[in-house]
Write a structure and sequence with these properties.
Layout: E1 2-6, H1 11-22, E2 26-31, H2 34-43, E3 48-52, H3 58-68, E4 75-78, H4 93-121, E5 125-129, H5 142-164, E6 170-174, E7 179-180, H6 183-187, E8 196-197, H7 198-210, E9 215-216, H8 220-229, H9 234-246
Parallel strand pairs: 1-2, 1-4, 2-3, 4-5, 5-6, 6-9, 7-8
Helix pairs in contact: 1-7, 3-4, 4-5
Length: about 250
């Protein structure tokens, strides 16, 4: 049994690696930070291959696939991603385009490449890490919220295609709320709600993945929030979202 995890050097990705290793999975861990990957490898008891790579370019995604395509991978977890806070006119365009490349294009590319292989075998799991941001408008984090909405709708659509084909291949989206990871520091935000621990989110995500749940939402707060927003007019939702976002300013 073999799983590939992107963004595996910290946070949810790192904890997913720990949990899958505990379940007996060998791992291919992908991230940019070699030192952190090597430190994680030393913790784990199963076979671990570390690939130091920035997958924010399509070329590197293709290179990654070519490097591992013959290894009979059972699970792909597209976890790599980052956020950016600020007024859209003021935020850095290059960072936003990098975010689109990583949060959308890398997920899209790796999903397509591995899904084709999984369909040939008629087995396999793909878990795309989205966010509770996918359910809401995100003024002051417009690009990040847009990328996560893409990941969610993209994943749902493929899930339905596989269902209609009666395929045994699974694809689902993980949509956590605030989590205590490096995301906050990178995005320069401070959440008002207490964040969940990444280990708890990872355990819940993997449990629901193996049960083939399409949308995985850890924590009762986020489940209730998703249910409630369907009853709120869009204008009020936008106004509320702006003020919630504004309070995140670090």
């Amino acid at each position: 049994m073999l799983a590939l995890i992107t963004g595996a050097s910290s946070g949810i990705g790192r904890d997913m690696a720990r949990i899958l290793s505990e379940k007996g999975y060998d791992l291919i861990l992908v991230a940019r930070r070699k030192t952190k990957l090597q430190a994680l490898k030393k913790e784990l008891n199963t076979n671990v291959e570390c690939i130091v790579m920035d997958i924010s370019t399509t070329f590197n995604c293709m290179e990654l696939y070519q490097e591992v395509k013959d290894k009979d991978i059972d699970i792909l977890i597209n976890n790599a991603g980052f956020g950016l806070f600020g007024e859209f006119c003021e935020t850095n365009l290059d960072k936003e385009l990098d975010m689109i490349d990583l949060n959308i294009k890398a997920v899209h590319t790796l999903t397509k490449l591995f899904l084709k292989d999984f369909k040939k075998k008629n087995k396999g799991y793909i878990l795309n890490v989205a966010s509770s941001a996918a359910f809401l408008p995100g003024p002051l984090m417009a690009t990040y919220y847009g990328t996560k909405a893409y990941v969610l709708r993209f994943t749902e659509s493929i899930h339905e295609e596989l269902k209609k084909e009666k395929s045994n291949v699974y694809i689902g989206a993980l949509c956590p709320g605030p989590v205590n990871t490096e995301f906050n520091k990178v995005a320069k935000v401070s959440f008002q709600l207490p964040g969940m621990e990444s280990r708890d989110v990872a355990e819940y995500a993997i449990k629901k993945m193996f049960k083939k749940k399409m949308i995985i939402i850890p924590g009762i707060t986020m489940k209730v929030s998703k249910f409630m927003i369907r009853f709120i007019p869009e204008s009020i939702l936008l106004h509320t979202a702006y003020h919630i976002q504004k309070r995140k300013r670090d």
